[in-house]
Write a structure and sequence with these properties.
- Helix 1 runs antiparallel to helix 7 (159-173), helix 4 runs parallel beside helix 7 (159-173) and helix 7 (159-173) packs across helix 8.
- The protein has a four-stranded mixed beta sheet with strand order 2-1-3-4, with helices on one face.
- The longest helix is centred in the middle third of the chain and has 26 residues, at 122-147.
- By secondary structure, it is an alpha+beta fold.
- 50% of the residues lie in helices and 8% in strands.
- The radius of gyration is 17 Å and the shape is globular.
Length: 213
């Protein structure tokens, strides 16, 4: 296995990138962060487009490979770095984790990401994002009624938490009402106390402008 330090192409506001940052931190994997400024269109530049044809972040260079798509990256890290498991041993619990991951990463975040918002009139973007995120988190809250302990599935941090917490960055940004999301709020508070989540927060990233930290 290639022992060079992994390189993560990331953007401070990207919730997909944050999922991977959290998992890398939880597994104790040191990595180099290489920011790609989505707001300035750097993801469509020639060099990055060659690295990742979808022109999205994150991309992770690790073990001599170039990996794209955050959930695929999370699964690769889980399968190759078992020192800190982020999937439960029980098959049913693993299915619950993956269901929550899907509710966030397939059913919610893609409908409010930057590419979608830029297709809308500027005056409609915030309300669209708030509505989509509110609907998605309401679904997750109902799922947590049957799966949650201290975290999304049971009492240990899993890939579900790695995906939920970054979605909450966007929820706060677009002023989603958390009143009907008590389990999500509790999980957010517990995650905030862990260094792996704190260090992955958008405000802690090297490309985060100092005026909004």
């Amino acid at each position: 296995m290639n022992e060079s330090k992994p390189v993560l192409y990331t953007y401070f506001r990207s919730s997909a990138s944050a999922r991977v940052r959290i998992a890398l931190n939880l597994k104790g994997i040191e990595y180099e962060s290489r920011p790609v400024n989505l707001a300035q269109g750097e993801q469509r530049s020639g060099n990055y487009a060659m690295l990742n044809p979808s022109c999205l972040v994150p991309t992770l260079e690790i073990d001599g490979h170039k990996l794209t798509q955050s959930v695929a990256i999370l699964e690769y890290l889980e399968e190759t770095r078992g020192n800190r498991p982020l999937l439960p041993a029980d098959p049913l619990q693993r299915a619950h984790v993956r269901a929550i991951v899907g509710a966030i990463c397939s059913d919610t975040q893609p409908l409010q990401n930057l590419r979608v918002l830029l297709e809308l009139p500027e005056a409609e973007r915030a309300e669209h994002a708030r509505r989509v995120i509110s609907q998605g988190l309401a679904v997750v809250e109902k799922m947590l009624e049957h799966t949650a302990g201290r975290f999304c599935v049971g009492d240990d941090v899993t890939l579900a938490d790695c995906c939920l917490i970054p979605q909450l960055y966007n929820a706060h940004r677009y002023a989603v009402d958390f009143a009907a999301l008590p389990r999500i709020r509790e999980i957010e508070e517990r995650a905030a106390a862990l260094d792996a989540f704190h260090q992955a927060h958008w405000s802690q990233q090297p490309d985060c402008p100092t005026n909004i930290k």
